[in-house]
């Protein structure tokens, strides 16, 4: 082989090594870029999940507050009706006692 051919082969081998090195660097850069994108997407997904959970909890709290208010209102109405009934029964008992006393003792 001539000296020129040997130099050409050496240069070609060097270029091949450089291409291989550059290729490995590029692969590492791509892998790193992929990992960063995955990490970014994961963070975005976590934030969206947190926001969704927070909004669902707010909706649930509002619904629960409305339900509690409705139940409290119903209970209040029922308690008022019961108190009115008790008052009416007490008045009836008092009236009955007065009537019995009047009947038993007459108009003294």
UniProtKB/TrEMBL annotation:
Coiled coil: 9-47
Swiss-Prot/TrEMBL keywords: Coiled coil
Protein name (database record): Uncharacterized protein
Gene source species: Carnobacterium alterfunditum
Species classification: Bacteria, Bacillati, Bacillota, Bacilli, Lactobacillales
């Amino acid at each position: 082989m001539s000296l020129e051919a040997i130099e050409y082969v050496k240069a070609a081998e060097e270029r091949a090594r450089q291409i291989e090195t550059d290729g490995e660097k590029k692969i590492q850069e791509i892998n790193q870029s992929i990992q960063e994108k995955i990490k970014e997407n994961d963070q975005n997904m976590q934030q969206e999940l947190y926001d969704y959970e927070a909004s669902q909890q707010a909706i649930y709290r509002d619904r629960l507050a409305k339900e509690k208010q409705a139940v409290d209102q119903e209970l209040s109405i029922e308690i008022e009706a019961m108190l009115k009934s008790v008052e009416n029964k007490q008045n009836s008992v008092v009236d009955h006692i007065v009537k019995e006393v009047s009947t038993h003792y007459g108009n003294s």
